[in-house]
Description:
Layout: H1 27-44, H2 57-67, H3 72-85, H4 89-93, H5 97-104, H6 111-126, H7 135-138, H8 146-157, H9 166-177, H10 188-195, H11 203-216, H12 235-238, H13 257-277, H14 284-287, H15 297-306, E1 316-317, H16 319-322, H17 330-333, H18 338-348, H19 354-366, E2 371-373, E3 376-378
Antiparallel strand pairs: 1-3, 2-3
Helix pairs in contact: 1-11, 2-3, 2-8, 9-11, 13-18, 13-19
Amino acid sequence: MSIQMTHRTSAETGITPTAPVFPDVPESAITRVQTTIIDWFEAAARPLPWRAEGTSAWAVLVSEIMSQQTPVSRVAPRWSEWLERWPTPADLAAAPTAEVLQRWDRLGYPRRALRLQEAARVIADDHDNQVPDTAAALETLPGIGSYTAAAVASFAHGERTTVLDTNVRRVLVRVFAGRDRPTVSPSRRETVWAERFVPATDHVAWNAGVMEFGALVCTARSPKCEDCPLADICAWNLAGRPASAAKPKTQKWAGTDRQLRGAIMDVLKAAHAEAAEAGNRSTSVVERSSVVPGSSAVEKAANATTGRASAATDAIAVDLFTAPTAELDDERLGTLGPTTSAKLTTMRDLSADADRISRLIADLVTDGLAHRSGDRLSLPR
Length: 381
Ligand code: SF4
């Protein structure tokens, strides 16, 4: 069986595409693909921790937010730690934001952590600490988009929804529309088209299965067509796997603002951790002093008696981020804990100019990811 598609010619461009953008698909083909994916998933699904029986809706929501733009191998350990620390929305809602960012660790895009905490506060305050059980209600929460709402409603509550992430969309356009990849984001038309492929029963297995299939078999760069159970019906495979005219842009990391923001955040997180370890996270000693850290009489006395660890503070002088590196002598770096000092050196090795660093620091403060008090910068209070 193969999927038949209607050919047409664009009046505007004169180009004859291989198929309509979202073609009609015969019921028999839909049933075959559904059955194949669901059977494949039953046999091949990875034992991800949030798929275990009895996982709470809150835990599913956390897994979905963490898994956006982060590989599941990096998410799994963080997810377990988070759920141990904050087992319900109310627990996360009450947590210090600095600790939330700290524990987000290296998952990237830390604004997700802030949005998750905002959503937790709304769930705790307005929903009796229970994650809403419909996609429509979930979408009213801060930071929850249509994809996450559909996924949580399906995987946590069994609602029949259409879960459309990049993996799902890629599988659908390859198999049913004969194209190698979807557009940047789904249109209303695509969403309506995809709804038809969600079975009336087994819709949770379909949603999870087609996602997993896109992650493991029908991948963006190296689809395993030779071993694919849909190879005989997949429109893109049968057409000889033609590449799209426009290649997707690959995201650079080195030299980007994102890299530099991450490096600044790493300094603040290290400072927070070392200050907490030294029992010195209060703002008392350093923030009362407007002079160079380590130079106040109080600090000098403290350092003399307890050594370097006592100098650790979670509030870092902004000019340590922006001053010419030649001015960062051992005495100034010695006011920081050893990990903070190493992170600062790494960040300064990126060789960004002071104006750019100042701009990114201002952005971090605006985004709620950092707190500035006078000439000091720390994680949010
Ligand atoms: S044949 Fe290739 S492109 Fe088609 S569904 Fe299978 S892996 Fe994806």
